[in-house]
Fold:
Amino acid sequence: AMPLAMNVFGTDRRLLKALGLKSYGQISEKIGGLLEPELPQGFIGVREAFGKLGSMVHVPPKKVKGESAPVQEVVLTGDDVDLDRLPALFTWPKDGGSFFNLGLTHTKHPETGVRNLGLYRLQRHDKRTIGMHWQIHKDSRNHYAVAAKRGERLPVAIAFGCPPAVTYASTAPLPGHLDEYLFAG
Structure:
């Protein structure tokens, strides 16, 4: 048996609490400032703009080492891989099978090294195979296309049980060059 939490982002109150926010306006302000930055006016404006940029650059993801980490890292390889050990849900009558919920897909651009974090449908086909639906306009799909053109395989990691801010960042409408981990803080 595996503990399972469902609908943890199901109400405004729970979602805002999980993200450590008081209102959705705080999210839109942060994203809006990235998508439509104001051009600085004069020396003071330039100095303030560098201050805002510096505040984003200096918000790296929190690193936790050793036994104090609040997670369990479980890595299975080869014949030990068994997707049947994870909860996969059949939630819609016309779905083609069962799906894993909230598996965050991590990729890295093969040429630039830019990371991407996305949330895609993950269908369990059998105990060793997942089908992933990443649309052609998504960043991870772009990473895959570049790797395929180079004749390379694209390393992909899928993580379950990520912190709420990281889960939200994986779906936020961010520019492709912006690292979701930095956005999540």
